[in-house]
């Protein structure tokens, strides 16, 4: 059902007004540092139904470079408000959330294989996940493959978070480290309750929290998976 012009204007105004309250000023795909303002904020588990899925935008069935990847929050098979984009859609960047007036709301979302996970490349420092290691949404593993999604910048390459791995790029076919950072379903994706209402919604900041477990708080090496609203 198409929204009226008046309803659209009211929804946009509400998001703009409330979006000024308390949300993170940090960009999608940045890692938390010891000097950052969000250090120590309490984190809560994302809803148990949270998954990562994709909108198959192309004419050829199956996941490919043109498809949009989402953190899907609520049950169902279609994109809904507050789902979180891990890759851009048009002029809407990675780290933005779906709103009722966006053109990708209500789109059918397909499942990745059960081997999907958030994994890291152990390129620097200790054998475990540390501050310099790049992180990916991985379709399968144990190696990085074409169309895996970068969740933070890869040091020294200029490759940006929210982009997909392509042929001949330096982070293709590298062996992921162990253990796996985040599996689905399971802990590891958390939110800071910006408006204090006790549930995940549009205003809340989303983090990859590793090592996972509760109680939890924003700490060094967490990755911000949402951008400023």
Per DSSP, the total helix count is 1
Q: Order of helices and strands, N to C? A: HEEEEEEEEEEEEE
Question: End-to-end span in angstroms?
Answer: 26 Å
pLDDT averaged residue by residue: 88
Structural class: mainly beta
Biggest sheet statistics: 5 strands, antiparallel
Number of strands: 13
| Relative strand content | 15-25%
- The poorly predicted ranges are 5-21
> Strands across the major sheet, in which order?
12-1-10-11-13
Query: How many structural domains does the protein architecture include?
Result: 3
Please outline the helices and strands.
Layout: H1 5-18, E1 42-45, E2 51-55, E3 68-72, E4 84-85, E5 110-111, E6 117-120, E7 135-138, E8 149-150, E9 182-183, E10 189-192, E11 205-208, E12 216-217, E13 223-224
Antiparallel strand pairs: 1-10, 1-12, 2-3, 2-5, 3-4, 6-7, 6-9, 7-8, 10-11, 11-13
What does this structure look like?
The chain is mainly beta. The protein folds into 3 domains: 22-47 and 186-229, no CATH class; 49-114, no CATH class; 117-183, no CATH class. The protein is built from 1 helix and 13 strands. The protein has one helix at 5-18, and strands at 42-45, 51-55, 68-72, 84-85, 110-111, 117-120, 135-138, 149-150, 182-183, 189-192, 205-208, 216-217, 223-224. Strands 12-1-10-11-13 form a 5-stranded antiparallel beta sheet, with no helix packed on it. The longest helix has 14 residues, at 5-18. The protein is globular and about 45 Å long. The chain starts with a helix and ends in a 5-residue tail after the last strand. The model is unreliable at 5-21 (pLDDT under 50).
